[in-house]
Amino acid sequence: MAGSPQKNVVVIGASVAGHTFVNALADKLPADHRILLVERNGFTVHLPAVVRALVVPGWESKNLTAEVTQASIFKSGSRHRVLSPNSVVELKKNSLVLEKPFEGSTEVSFVKAIIATGASQPLPMRPTPGSTLEGFKADLVRIQNDIKAAKSIAIIGGGTVGTEVAGEISELYPNKHVTIVHSDNGLLQPSGIASTAKEVYSPPPTDRKLSVALEKSLKQRAVNVVLNDRVVFPKGPVQGSEWDGTSGLQHGVRRLALQSGKSVEADYVFVSIGNTPNSGLVKAVDPTALTNNNYIKVDAFFRVQAAAGSPLSGQYYAIGDVAAVAGWKTAVAAAAEGPALAAVIDAEIKGKKPKAYSAPATGGAMVVSLGTKEGSGYLPLPLFGNVTAPGFIIGMKTKDFFAGKSFFPRFQGSQKITA
Ligand SMILES: Cc1cc2nc3c(=O)[nH]c(=O)nc-3n(C[C@H](O)[C@H](O)[C@H](O)COP(=O)(O)OP(=O)(O)OC[C@H]3O[C@@H](n4cnc5c(N)ncnc54)[C@H](O)[C@@H]3O)c2cc1C
């Protein structure tokens, strides 16, 4: 085990949740404590901008990515350390195991460990684990070229990502035929049907007025919106022009069967479903610490709820997309949870009473872009309820997906990161 006299606060994952936690805690820790920030990729991605980067040439290099290094995260002379690229591969009681050694050992002891490992999704929504920045950009360019070559595009899933991708494609390529197939009765998730299930994290419903506005805008661009239906994923070999379940550019026009018995034809398929919490590290040591849909159970102080005697009972915490904190799994929510957990850890280390977390009202804001000029959204206001997002907020989202406001300023190290 690494033999430093420093007490380690280990953070697993350097995206929104992990990074905002680090920024809020770094200057508050006592001198005998240090942060070790572990990130498996050598870079991080401003995920909201991916919907444009996978469609619009040039956007793979804009407002999107930053290298995760000691200099980009911490000021020079800092005792805190960035371990990137490196991965946490095992969780133990009071220590964890790294893929590559740090200070001569792959096992690192800690006084607090923060799990901020986010969600798992295939390319292009999230970079493949262990990929390089250049490799990720090359993947985006390949997808841009494939979409350019396609004539008819089927988008499976009309959540925010599927809807925004439809917005980008229909703006840049107005003559391509775009269809969204979505299981809910409006775009996004207005019905909130999933929220009745037990021991399952489920997001709150979205405001139906937003679903209606988005559907109207997309229909004006001749996007075909199919609701209350699902694409059937084939279980075995297929014949002729039937779709074989693969995403991306097809070898000719394929027929996608729907549950209703109808079908959609497309020569490009974009799969925008299947976002799952990246909680395998927890599952491997204590599956009882997970909800039935694999989110990490936490209390109001983000402490992992593990069985007595479990290696995870004690000093493990979870935030962001991987944690079963109530509310949506968004960058906005993760950016609120990071500083809130930092306040909990700061209080605990200093022997004070930490404050229970309740999500701020701003976490219920939803802004959806439809290309560079259009979008819709709402902001939750106390007493007033949801009000339509003003034009300047929509403009900030469509311009750079709030990267100038929330992504680049997150990098507070000696090396400045800009667009
Ligand atoms: C295409 C797309 C568009 C989106 N648009 C919006 C939007 O407009 N607005 C909004 O608010 N939200 C949006 N979101 C959601 C938002 O991006 C996520 O909610 C947010 O990124 C969650 O942050 P996180 O830190 O919890 O997890 P992630 O961003 O998933 O980051 C987890 C990090 O942990 C690292 N990691 C994982 N396992 C290990 C390990 N074992 N060891 C070391 N490191 C590890 C990963 O490499 C990654 O960097 C979008 C998401 C996508 C995919």
UniProtKB/TrEMBL annotation:
InterPro entries: FAD/NAD-bd_sf, FAD/NAD-binding_dom. The keyword GTP-binding does not apply. Keywords: FAD, Flavoprotein, Oxidoreductase. The keyword Oxidoreductase applies. Residues 8-338 form the FAD/NAD(P)-binding domain. Gene3D superfamilies: 3.50.50.100. Belongs to the FAD-dependent oxidoreductase family. This is FAD/NAD(P)-binding domain-containing protein.
